[in-house]
Amino acid sequence: MSFLLSIFKPIAYISLPVILARTAISSSPMGLYYFRRGLYLGCMTAVATFGIVVAATMSATGYRYDVNWVIARTFYALAGTVLNIKVEVEGEEHLLTKPAVLLSNHQSMLDILFVGRLMPKKTSIMAKKSLQYTPLGPFMIMSGAVFIDRGNNARAVRSLEAAGQLMKNRKISLWMYPEGTRHMSKEPELLPFKKGAFHLALQSGIPIVPIITENYWRIYQEGFFGTGVVKIRVLPPIPTEGLTANDVPELAERVRDQMLDALRDISVKVEPASAEEPRDLPPPTTSSDPALFSSPSNTKEEGTFSPHDVNPEQVLEARTSSVMSIASSDSNHREQRSEPSENGTETEEDEGMILVGRPT
User: Fold this and answer.
1) Interior CA angle at 198 toward 195 and 199, to 5°?
2) Could you give all domains of the chain from N- to C-terminal order, each with its CATH number?
3) Burial class (CB in 10 A: 0-12, 13-18, 19+), 281
4) Peptide bond before 192: cis, by omega within 30 degrees of 0?
5) Could you tell me which InterPro entries the record lists for this protein (predicted)?
6) How many Cα atoms occupy the beta-carbon half-sphere of 119 within 13 Å?
7) Which DSSP state fits 134?
8) Residue 142 burial by Cβ neighbours in a 10 Å radius (0-12, 13-18, 19+)
9) pLDDT tens digits for 16-54?
């Protein structure tokens, strides 16, 4: 009996704080969000640490381009199990197309989990330069990753040109995010595509394989981190042979349309957001409604405002003009942020974004 107590007593001492902490966290939605986010980043750090040993060993034995496949599958197995998030893939056979430019939509840092599920063997990646200073950095360097300086346009273009040459020489594929940055919304949407990936595909004369991850807003968003199944659809290859640089805009638009249609098809349907008037303003009313402009009392204190002092038509005109001005300003702001770059680079910071991968 004393032997059993010596075993279970330490376990009880360790388990009790964990159970109490989990109970407390579960009672707070925001606490649960940060707890699960911490688990995700913890899994990433653990696998990256493990990846240093794997990368060093496999690079020394001639399996350098299998490093990312091992790390990716390990991360998906660990993080997917811990967070209870599963992936269903449709059209996975199209990933065997090689070489190819693999284009995927980009929603959040959770995309790394889905890359882990899909990345084929003999794969390397191209990523923004800042990622080499994250937990992912060491094994990315030893696995032959090429880093892009997204803050320097000329260097980014040269990196893409070098990637194209590598594709021709070794017949490898590239995984890219044509939106250029992360984008999450309640409704399934895509940002305008940047053109770098399409110029690269045309220069190399290789097909494009679109990969669409459903809108997982219901599982992950700011302040919420849930569980569930995420659907991914891989579309058939789109040939680029015979096309020229003049065909890039039309090709980019066609690929985006196909991906957007697939995104909306596999995503959970949501009701489109309806425009609502500001809550602190009542709906516009004409002067035919006497109740709005009538005073509850015939007395008026000095320095107070009385509805009788205002022309109802002037109020309605001013209110309408204000709303239209705000809408116009917001529309101009969105257009400025959504303007694509012809060379496929992005200068804004985007933590956790893997730009390009190279499957066999």
Assistant:
1) 85
2) 25-271+342-358 (3.40.1130)
3) exposed
4) no
5) AGP_acyltrans, Plipid/glycerol_acylTrfase
6) 29
7) S
8) buried
9) 565 656 665 667 788 899 999 999 999 999 988 888 888
